[in-house]
Amino acid sequence: VSETSRVRAAVVVDASAVAVLSTELGYPQSATDAQRRLLALLADDDHLVLVAEAETGAVVGWLHARYSIELVTEPLAEIVGLTVTSSSRRQGHGGALVAGVVDWARSKRAAELWVRARVERLGTPAFYERHGFALDKTQNVFVRKLSAGDGRPEA
Ligand SMILES: CC(C)(COP(=O)(O)OP(=O)(O)OC[C@H]1O[C@@H](n2cnc3c(N)ncnc32)[C@H](O)[C@@H]1OP(=O)(O)O)[C@@H](O)C(=O)NCCC(=O)NCCS
């Protein structure tokens, strides 16, 4: 809860700010990349992209969440990405973004809200616990590249 954070739905013109913040987070990208992805997400009701603005109107954080139907559980909502620029942390922006996704997940009738956080991000457990999340499990993530000619047999 903050007096300075204003959270709103992202719009296409936020793409350049999203690109800068994502690059800072470790996902380098151009404004054009961010714009293409944002356009696809904004057209899909099962995705939510929020931005947090400082009092100056500058975009200082974003959150992306998705709603998904499941085979073995009731539908879930998941925070796919969340970041606040380092100079604006501990001012309530992250908490305001989480409040926004909780409202959205409830409106979608999701049974649970998930987030998978990299273990290297040391501040995140305290942040999520502060916002009502509890650690459920740890996982390994396996990735298979799907680019053409990766030399692997078809499976
Ligand atoms: C995690 C993150 C989004 C939090 O954003 P934020 O705007 O700083 O969060 P808030 O100001 O709303 O913090 C609310 C509370 O969470 C807790 N908290 C937040 N960051 C914390 C940290 N680094 N260490 C311990 N507690 C923390 C505190 O209780 C804090 O309240 P306080 O400042 O009054 O003590 C931000 O630190 C960030 O972008 N980190 C890098 C990216 C990342 O880890 N993203 C999440 C990946 S899933």
Low-confidence stretches: none
Q: Count the E strands.
A: 5
Tell me which ligands are bound.
coenzyme A
Characterize the overall form.
globular
Order of strands, widest sheet = 1-2-3-4-5
Rg for CA atoms: 17 Å
What summary fits the major beta sheet? Answer: 5 strands, mixed
How are the elements arranged and paired?
Layout: E1 6-9, H1 15-25, H2 31-42, E2 47-53, E3 59-68, E4 76-84, H3 93-107, E5 112-115, H4 124-130
Parallel strand pairs: 4-5
Antiparallel strand pairs: 1-2, 2-3, 3-4
The protein binds coenzyme A.
Describe the structure in your own words.
The structure is a single chain. By secondary structure, this protein is of the alpha+beta class. The protein is about 30% helix and about 20% strand. It has four helices and five strands; from the N terminus they run βααβββαβα. The chain has helices at about 15-25, 30-40, 95-105, 125-130, and strands at about 5-10, 45-55, 60-70, 75-85, 110-115. A five-stranded mixed beta sheet has the order 1-2-3-4-5, sandwiched between helices. β2 (about 45-55) and β3 form a beta hairpin. α1 (about 15-25) packs across α2. The protein is globular, with a radius of gyration of 17 Å. It starts with 5 loop residues before the first strand and ends in a 25-residue tail after the last helix. The mean pLDDT is about 95. Coenzyme A (COA) binds near residues 123 and 126.
